[in-house]
Amino acid sequence: MSLKNIDLYPHNQETYTKIIDAWTETNKVAVVQATGTGKTYLILKCMSNFMFQTKVILAPSHYILNQLKSLSDGSEVNTIYMTYSKLSFMSHSEISELQASLIVLDEFHRCGADVWGRGVERLLEANPNAKMLGTSATPIRFLDNERDMSDELFDGKVVTNLNLADAVVQGILPMPKYISSLFSIEDEVNKLNMKIQSSRNSDSDKQQLFKDVEALKRKLNKSKGAEQILHKHIDRNVKKFIIFCKDIKHLVEMSKIVPKWFLNAGVNGVKVLKVYTEYLNSDKEFDYFRNSKDDDRVLLLFSVDMLNEGVHVEDVDGVILLRPTNSPNVYYQQIGRAIQAGSNKSPLIFDFVNNFENVGSKQFIMDLKEATEKAVRMKKAVVDVPQFLIIDEVQEVKEMFEAIENRIGTDWHFSYEKLKEYYEKYGHTRFGEDGYDSDLSIWASRQRTYYKKGMLGDDKVAKLDSLDFVWDALEDNWTEYYELLIEYKEAYGNFSASANKEFKGKNLGNWVNKQRFRHKKGKLSDDRVQKLDEIGFWSVKGYRHKWEDRYQELKEFYDINGNHSVNRREYGALYVWISRQRDAYKQGKLSDEEISKLKDIKFQFEK
């Protein structure tokens, strides 16, 4: 494919125009778009503007780079493809020789990693006049103090922000059929049996409860097992599935189990393929999976991490999620593997977990509803909420377990007395702050559910109210931090709580950043926006104010540690700011006042 002849989807054509316009004002431009929306073609189109100039294209893996190369069909010249890992091992002199006019940082959120980040820093320092394009579906490093890499690398210049839910609602991506289910109930059965064993029920009651649990287990294995779920939702035309596992040991185990699910579900045959870092045949088996068109069997590609991001296979019928994750980035990257712009079929997403707590569909449903509300306001909605094909096979099972659990002899008044003891000891009922009690926390959560459904008697509501019981845990948590923010402002006169600094035992800075991020994405309720406005939180922060905020953060660090050697992982934004001050000093862009202030804390301008 010639770079000059690339046709873009309308949404990407709009983004491309925004990129070109933005480059007339700044060198740094970022694009945040969901997996499957065609970011690869967008990169290639931008490369066409630098046909005979040096282009450095960076990505986390060779799979992504090879995909770019194959689509460009060798028609581009002066293009250097390399992984972030390779760049990190290059010397200063080797990087200086690159002389790039265009630098593309694909999956740029990965630049937040210590080693890879240092390599990118050296490249940007050596090419201060190069145009930069960053692409990512997920710029926030949620497990790294929620660092927003679009702010750190691109000064917040994001021309398009299109997440997976937005893309589905606007009709850019097809709506997947999302099936949330349990592939094993063993963990839940074991938990329930332990509760029965330690309960206050009589021995005869316990024996009956054990029998009922065993009968429920047999029933569910027949009706809600993985093969039954697959048989219910797949047809004989499916050809390719990607299965995400949590580690290599898990992959080896599940690569023996999952094929049986498919065979018992009625498919003609299966072929198991694997791709992970230590596996020597990864490239060969991935190529077979991607290019196979006439294999009559269902191809099952098992992966650990390597296919989370960037790589796309056009004719995947679905994905199976077997690894619980706390990272929204990883979660959306994985379900995005099956979704492709321009496709007219609904891909299948099987969210198979083995306990009730790790059900990702709840987040997906919430994001879809928020995206719909936003799209309706912007008149961009194509899909209506009732059309979302989300099938929850877990809730019914959960209710069956709860029916048995409600017969276990931990009566309401016994649990209430335990809660009262907790309240008298700690002065509140916010579990997680002091003396965490998981059973009591679960009981309290259940009371909130019953209360919302009108199933809790007035006498019980009154008893819980006497303990200042928290009926809305999320709202209470927000109010607690809001009041803490007011105290911080009274103490320091600003809202510049560092994301890495605790205030009264709480990570207030992280909460502050989250409010700004949610407001920026239109996800903060009007009531909360107004409350923050009342205390001056949304006051426009100009360059001077932002500079002073970072300076004060550095001064505090220096006063405590006697140096400026901040750790990139802990102080990502400050680390980048320090580097920019050195660049600005070399380029004569710092004011005399700024230089004087930095000298006051013995700042090293040369390093």
Automatic annotation (TrEMBL):
PROSITE patterns: EF_HAND_1 (PS00018), HELICASE_ATP_BIND_1 (PS51192), HELICASE_CTER (PS51194). InterPro entries: EF_Hand_1_Ca_BS (IPR018247), Helicase/UvrB_N (IPR006935), Helicase_assoc (IPR005114), Helicase_ATP-bd (IPR014001), Helicase_C-like (IPR001650), P-loop_NTPase (IPR027417). It comes from Bacillus cereus. It holds the Pfam family ResIII. This is Uncharacterized protein. It comes from the Bacteria. GO terms for molecular function: ATP binding; DNA binding; hydrolase activity.
